[in-house]
Amino acid sequence: MEPNMAGPESIFRSIGLSESTLRRAMNDSRTQHMLAAATLPEEDVVAQIQRAKDQFESERRLGPGPRVPVLREHLAMSMAHWRRELQKSLTTDESIFRRTYIGFPKHSSRTPLSELAPIRLADMQVRKTHVGSYLLCRTFTLPTRLVAICAGIEDTDGVVQMLSIYNFPGALSATLETLDEILPLGTTIALREPTMKMDTSGRSAFIRVDSPTDVVFLDAKDPIILDARWRTPAAPSGLPSTADACRLRGNAHFKAERYLAASIAYTRGLRFEPPSKSLLLNRALAYLHLEYYSAALSDAELVIRDETTEGQDRVKALFRAARAYYGRAEYSCAQQLFKEVLVYEPGQVESVGWVRRCEQRMKESRDGDGAYDWAGMYKEAQDSIHLDVADWVGPVEVASMPSRGGGRGVIATRDVRVGELLMVAKPYAVGFPATTRETYLSYNLSTTEIHGRSRVELISRTIAKVMAEPSSAPLVCSLYAGPDSLPAPPTYPEPAASKLAAAAGSAQGNTATTLTNLTLVQDVDVLHIERACSFNAFGIQNISSAPKARTFDSTPSALYALPSLVNHACAGTATWACWGDVIVVRATCNLQRGEEVTMAYVNSSTYVDRAKFLSKYFGSCDCWLCAQERRDGEERCIERERLTDAFRRYTPANRTVSAARDFVKAMEATYIPGLSTAGQVRPMMQIAYGALGMALRMRAFETGQRSMYGEVATTYMQALEAVGITVIDKSLRGRLAPSDSRTTIPIAMTRAPVLEWHEATLQALGICASFYAMLDDLRAARWFKAAQWLNDAIFGGGEALFRVQYAHVFEDMNISACFNM
Ligand SMILES: C[S@@+](CC[C@H](N)C(=O)[O-])C[C@H]1O[C@@H](n2cnc3c(N)ncnc32)[C@H](O)[C@@H]1O
């Protein structure tokens, strides 16, 4: 469900570097280093990952060894150096490339601090996770970051070591101001079951924390701190010492859109003056921006419950609580509170708007397909990746599928028609490709892939959400995490689809104080989350934007709940499309009750391409299309890919009718009549016929030979047949039966095209345009309807969506009049 790698050109395009930055970057040694890594041929990526695996294995075999001491001054100097480097990279145009590994075994503590015994740095060993122990320490340097947040720490004996905390919420791409708020000088922490490792140079040791929940931020009044005797004096933190000063500091962060830093500053303020309403209200707002809705709700409710709260404070608290409920998809509760705001401030424009939005969301989650404004969503997705719509679960449920990894799948709960809506799901979390100068290369040891920033951010945001919305943790825990995952994924029927869907939005039972003290209550298993992302993440190709080249970091990466339980089939019984970050699944054929809902994880016509992609997730695909193509033999499949690549490399001027005819002929020759897929679904033939149709259309247009359009129409009909569409009326001229009205559709409305649905709609429009050019308005109108039906089967939305989606095509083909025919 993720894009493949591509060459440097598309990588740079996907990173979004400007020409000037690109030129500068090309002269930078780190760029060359990144290019060398990112454009490695597949075998080299595999080899690099194997080397990393070997290194982990040899460290495991070597076993624990003595700690490598480090001098306080040296550590302080290198921290200061890395901090300067970070500052420089954040304030200059320099590009930075960060390399990280995911998917290797790592520890996340599940034992509460109170049940752990203290350990000192001097008693720790390298290559060891100190299970059963905690390390009390405090930072004696300012923090910096590479992929992880780093700082120098000392224990009560004054012994020092470097600390690296990976996956801290909000720390990816954090500025120094945010880092200084998370880990200011003199921060006292307890590290649960810490791991000491050697760095990659093999010269120095450091403490590596993978799960941010293993870091416990200690309050000055904590018994552990009260009992501690430090050999060295604490470094002055420079933090404000009154609630009001913390509020001002938080407000400054808030203004600069550093919402995590703001929330931490407000939290510090609340330690001085616990019931401060303004601090609670401000923090609730910061949490809303961070999408930590349960935490926001908890703060707002504290203010609401206080009987002395009145006036603007009450209005703000009600409004923020309502926004939090809305974020948790509890639209009815949200609406009730927005209405309460209107009691205090009748006609307040914002709340009036929100009441309406709640109404619309409730309608969507109740009524499904007809309640969504598909055309509006399409337009909205052109400007914003985040769409505001409700989830909807249609006639589907989770079922036991023992032969599939994870043991589950999704089935229809009743008979379903082609094109019927099956589910609409908002993402659990989304990560975005690099837009700044900071680029990530992440080597995945579970799937032997290379990822970019989008995957690194997805993992980090998933961790943050599990921490901020603890009630959603079971959802993430239950996702399939690959064959090596421990513990094994839960067996069917738990958790059922409805529970998964509910957990995605609801936060019942949350303590909702997750970030209050920066001590996070929900333990996070980072390895499971990394692996769950590996096996369930979707690469978002927004239907409203031009398709992007598949590179290691070209598209946002998202995690969904119920859609993650749908198994793969290249010719699936359903198809998925992303409207912004919202995934919409529809049936591609008529389904009987109990029939499995499957969809293609990778949308490619070529068997070779699909097989390569899927082999990383599960052996080979057993869908009927792959079985058919395998019968043709690997050589022919490779030949089809070669022919397609060769034709695609032609310049437009060279894509002549005769070149396209040769392409069709050569492609036909790869199918053996009788033995192979001849006469059945042949997605590669759609490409060839599509190319010929296009070449013929260009020729007809250039020469003005109207008679040529007949062949254009026939060729496009053949293209449609190649993707499984039954063309009922292939006639090019002559009278149609009197019953054949303009609205009679000349194709069988029994299944959507296999794989290349967008091409199929364009080809049906090409047929329409051909009849229109031949002055056959009746056939043109009928093929126009066929194109709309093909689009409807995949996207729904009827004529309204068809109009916005293909407006430019109607204009280009000069067929806009067909709407009125
Ligand atoms: C996104 S999950 C799908 C749901 C999964 N079956 C579960 O129980 O959670 C993807 C994993 O399901 C399994 N799977 C999906 N489609 C499959 C197929 N066609 N053949 C074999 N395994 C498949 C693979 O193990 C794959 O990595």
Give me some keywords for this one.
about 15% strand, four-stranded antiparallel β-sheet, about 45% helix, about 800 residues, alpha+beta, binds S-adenosylmethionine, Serine Threonine Protein Phosphatase 5, Tetratricopeptide repeat, 29 helices
How large is the radius of gyration? 30 Å
For the report, how would you describe the main beta sheet? 10 strands, mixed
Strand share of the residues? 5-15%
Approximate shape:
globular
The residue-averaged pLDDT reads 87
Percent helix range: 40-55%
Bound molecules: S-adenosylmethionine
The total count of helices amounts to 29
Low-confidence stretches: 2-18, 29-34, 487-520
User: What is the structural class?
Assistant: alpha+beta
Q: How far apart are the termini?
A: 41 Å
Report the strand count. Answer: 26
Commentary on this structure:
With 821 residues, this protein is α+β, with helices and mostly antiparallel strands. Among the domains are: 243-383, Tetratricopeptide repeat domain (Serine Threonine Protein Phosphatase 5, Tetratricopeptide repeat); 624-820, no CATH class. It is built from 29 helices and 26 strands. Strands 3, 5, 6, 7, 8, 9, 10, 11, 12 and 13 form a ten-stranded mixed β-sheet that branches. A four-stranded antiparallel β-sheet has the order 14-17-25-24. It has a four-stranded mixed β-sheet with strand order 15-16-26-23, with no helix packed on it. Helix 8 (243-255) packs antiparallel against helix 9 (259-272) and helix 22 packs antiparallel against helix 23. The longest helix is centred in the first third of the chain and has 21 residues, at 42-62. The protein is globular. The two termini are 41 Å apart. The site of S-adenosylmethionine has 19 residues, from strand 16, helix 19 and strand 23.
